[in-house]
Structure formats: C-alpha cells, structure tokens
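hi support,

uploading two proteins for the ticket. first:
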Amino acid sequence: MALQSLGEAAGWMAKSPYVWLSGLWTAAVLLLAWYLYEGVGIMTAVSVALVLAFVLPALIAGTYGVVAEGESSFRVFRRYAVHGYFRQLLPSILVFLIAWVISQFVSYILMTFGLGLAASAQVAMFVFIPVVFFCYFADVTAVVNEKRVFASVKDSFLRVMNGSFSVAVFYLVNVVLLIAVSFIGSFVFAAFAADAFLPFTSMTEAELLSLTPDELLAIMSAPEVMFAGFAAIAVCAVFFVPLFTLYKVCYFAKTSALVLPDATVAEPEGEYDEKGRWYKYK
C-alpha cells in the first residue's frame, strides 16, 4: 500500500500541473529571501519569507483536493485551496505546538535531574518526532473529511496506531526520500559553490587543518556559498514538496479502513401519544 501510493504520487506529478504550485512557491520564497538577505538584511528577508510562507497551506490544501476528487482541474484546486486553507493550517500549528510543548517539558524535567543541555535536547527531539508522526495525517483529514481540529488529530492517531506494518513502511519510505533529498541537495550545492571552494583544492592537509573557526565561518558565509545553499534547497523544494504532499494524501486515501468507526449513540426508545407528546420507555 505504501509503495503503491508512492507510484500514484509520481503519477499525479506527471498529469496535473497544479500540484507543482506548492514546490514552485516554496522555491520562489527561498530565492526571494536570499535576494533580500543580500540586498537589505536578514530581518527583512526572514519577515517577508514568513509572510509569504502563509500562502503555502492553501496550495497544499488544493493539492489534497485534486487527489481527493480525482480531478486535475483548477476549479477543484481553487475550491479546496480557499475552503481548506485554515483546515490545513490550524491542525499543522496545533500538532507542532503539542510536540513542542511535550518535548520542552521532557527536556526541562531531565535538566532538573541533572542531565546536560545537549543530552536533554536530544531526548526532547526523540519525543518531538513521534508526536509529529502520530499526528501526521491530521491536516489531510481536516481538509478532505472536513473534520474539526481535535477530531482530525484523533483520526490521525487512529490511522497510525491501527496501520502497524503498512504505516511503518510509509514512514520508512519518507525517510528514504529525505535521504535522497539530502544527496541531491548536496550535489546541487557543490555545483553552485564549486568556484567558492576552488582554493581548497590547492591547499595541503596541514593548511586545511590550520584554518581557524573564524576563517571557516567567513568562507561559509560568502555570498557565493550562501546562494548555493539557497539554490540547492530551492531546487529540491520544486520536486520534493509536491512529492511529499502527494504521497501523504495518496496514502491517506487508502487508510480509511484503519480508522475505527465512531461509536453510534443508541436512540432512546419511546412513543408519541395521540396529542403528539413523546414518552420514553423505562
């Protein structure tokens, strides 16, 4: 089921132009942030990037709608992008806050017992990641099934808990894709930053080891290197933001059987008399 969903996600990327909008928008925001960072300053770049990033939930919700409806049309994409904006945004924020609060609480408890800051942070990260994984499908079910925020989190939890091996494979494939992103990004970064790192090729091992942290920082913060970093992330975003989004919603569509049906509330038994009054059976 997990591998089949990956194939379906790749198929949607081939047949629908609208699912690429999330990746193109992310790449455009990253490149604009680099331009503002170089020309204006880091505060302006970060502020503008954060504001523009709030358009991304609409594009993701539109992608969910295209797959849910099985129709690659701008009408469907726009309808889900508009009506599903807050349905995608609010569960994502809630999941992040839940994971952050729990991880920070665990980190604080460990530090009070004498554990170091670095070790506490590592343990907190191991707490943060499972919380996100259990709530990973909350935004999809909020958009597709129109559930409320907390009901969406519960739905995601049930899907993951009842999915067992299939969900484990799904997450494993996501990890493999992340590794692929890192490899592709490193190659793109090396291609863009080749000129900046060219002097290193003529240096001996002793000269490389003698470089001070300030010198290394100056090299890594050079405009060419910064542009290479932003460009590498932007190139990866164009392809992998839509792929991760589509893979998530394609797998979600196959997991309806993993959610336990809501318990039906038994209606009280009774009858109406001749005057229309209802009497409940004892």
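and the second one:
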Amino acid sequence: MTLPIIDHRIYTIRLRKMNEFLEVFDRLAMPVLRETLGNPLGFYTSFVGPQNQFVHLWGYESLAEYERRSYLRDTHPDFAAYLKVSEPFIVAQETRLIRATTLPSP
C-alpha cells in the first residue's frame, strides 16, 4: 500500500556523534513516535553525498492526518525529554512532505 503523503525528515548529526544520537532517538523518541505517528516507513543514514545524516520516513493518508498525528507527538508529555537530550547532537533538520505520484506509461 502506498500512502499519499510522506513525511521525509533529514537530521544532520554532529561529527562522530551518530551512534550516541541513534541511542537517544531509539530510547526516548521511538516510544512516543510509535504511539503518536504509528509505524515508520524506514530509517536510513547517509552513505554517499552529504555525511552524518539520519533520515526517517512516515506515511499518512492525508495532510489532515499528518497534522493531527504531529500535534499528538508535539504535545506528548514525554517528547520534551527527547528534544532536550537530542539537541546537542543535531546540527540541522529538514522536514519535507512529499506526495506519491504515478508516471505515465511509455
């Protein structure tokens, strides 16, 4: 099943801090994210191109669902702890909402 809206997030992590960040993300963010956003589509780290980047993807049926679930995440009482502990590891964050599309047949 292809979800029409994908939240495509890219975090640039401080040099040599990826493992520490991933531990914090798994321990503090993932319980909240699974409860509020559901199951992720995937997690990735950069291999070629810009380095020290952590990418995660979450799918939604609609923009309204994205907004509703994001609100649940942002107001969850345990999410603030993750934000505080992860702050020293994150250099930059990009959030993109991308849409599924179909290409015309040749």
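thanks. also noticed: The mean pLDDT is 94.
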